[in-house]
# Entry
Amino acid sequence: MTRRYTILGLVGDGIAGEIVPEAMKVLRAVEEAYGLDLEVLGPYDFGAKYWVDHDMRQGWDPAITEGLFREVDGIFKGPVGLPDLLRKLPGPNLPINMRMDLDLYANIRPCRLRPGVDSVLVGRKPGDIDYIVLRENSEHMYVGIGGYLSRGGVTELAIDDYVQTRKGCERIIRKAFEIAKTGEYKGRAGAPLDGKKRVTCTAKWGICKGDDLFKDIYHEVAEDYPDIEQDTTWIDSWSYYAIMRPNFYDIAVMPNQYGDIMSDMSGALQGSMGLAGSLNAGDDHCFAEPTHGSAPDIAGRMISNPTSMILSVGMMLNWMGNKHGDSRLKEAWRGIDLAIDRVLGAKKVRTPDLKGSNSTSEFGSAVADEVKKGG
Ligand code: IPM
Ligand code: MG
# Structure
């Protein structure tokens, strides 16, 4: 009998209401094409607007409980946040809190130049860029330790503490080598330039203590992977080299805040933020969400590119496939990935960010139709 997987869907703000339904279409298509039974709870309203519309003190939609986050097999969520509400809302709806609560220590953010997409870099072609920003997701500037000194109602000082631990560094660096080994979430294993499996460690050692620790642990862990090439570059240099020779990179592992910044830069290298999928992954739980934000400036016009959301959901299926040893889920991810390549490569259906004139839903339907063809 086919096992049923339960997935929690959360919508979010801005363009989330446009791109999440497209991911749902694709989930329904993979069910059909790969004989899967995927029960989706929701997708429920969630995010900044939800809190405002429902009186912030009230909390979650009664159908969503924090317990549910731990019970389901996977979670996906559209981007959340509206600029006017920044710093005015309580925390639990933020992705960073979900990352901490569920201990999702790895943020996997692939950067791939896909067929049919023009590069912003002169002369780079599809296949030339295929690396992963592997962002540590539970430490560094994001631990939320720090505070304000206020005197007489005036904020005079603000402190943020950056924290890196042996456990935190070790598990993300090990994950980088493991992903390099399998090449999962990439178009192909290895770097496009020479096919070599390579893990680049990037941070600012010599200046930041936590980054000294990060690099030292990188060298320790690398000893367990003699077949994978080592590479270390300061993060400022990496922002240069990733643009000058993106084809050299395979997996780039880095502390949290650098990963936040470099994954947006990598969105540009892919040709659009709308192509930037991402997965927050732990050992027991995961949640998928695009790398980008809620884009309120373009929301409501159905011009957003749902690829990022669709890819994120596909990555979630792959993670579930690993966890349950279910190859159909892993095939479903590959099917989604290839369907996106085929639709983009055909250059017939494209959203405005890629110089097309199709709507969010026309693009989502084209991907879902392609998924149904399988292979
Ligand atoms: C991201 C976002 C988040 C982050 C924000 C929304 C807190 O920019 O997922 O990259 O900084 O991690
Ligand atoms: Mg970000």
Q: What stands out?
A: The chain has a mean pLDDT of 94. The first strand starts at residue 4 and ends at 10. The two ends are 23 Å apart (CA to CA).
